[in-house]
Amino acid sequence: MLGFIMKFLLTVIVSTWLIMQGTTGSFLSIPVLFAILVFALFIWDSIISYRKSEERKENLQHLNDFFKYKQSKYRGL
Predict the structure, then answer these.
(1) What are the domain boundaries of the chain?
(2) How far, in Å, CA of 41 to CA of 16, rounded?
(3) Which UniProt keywords apply (predicted)?
(4) Is residue 42 a contact partner of residue 8, using CB atoms and an 8 Å limit?
(5) 3-class SS of residue 25
(6) pLDDT tens per residue, range 5-43
């Protein structure tokens, strides 16, 4: 969670700085487009990180179920 907050703050700071550098009146200037790209990459990275954490939880649950099955199998013998 701390990494998420730090990445978000860094993205906001970089995006704001780039927009301030490119305040020429043109919305589609290079710094503004770069700031939009940085923010989009942050969103994409957040989604990927969330999916990986969910997969990790699911894999741990499968492993836990497997060990419970093995334990119950050996107790039954």
Answers:
(1) 2-76
(2) 15
(3) Membrane, Transmembrane, Transmembrane helix
(4) yes
(5) coil
(6) 777 777 777 777 777 766 656 666 677 777 778 778 888
Nearest-CA neighbor of 24 among 34, 16, 32? 32
In this predicted model, what pLDDT tens digit does every residue of 53-71 receive, in sequence order?
888 888 888 888 888 888 8
Instruction: Say how many CA atoms lie within 13 Å of 12 toward its Cβ.
Output: 6
51 to 46, 69, 71: CA distances (angstroms):
9, 27, 30
Helix, strand, coil shares of the chain, percent, nearest 5, are 85, 0, 15
Give SS3 for 1. Answer: coil
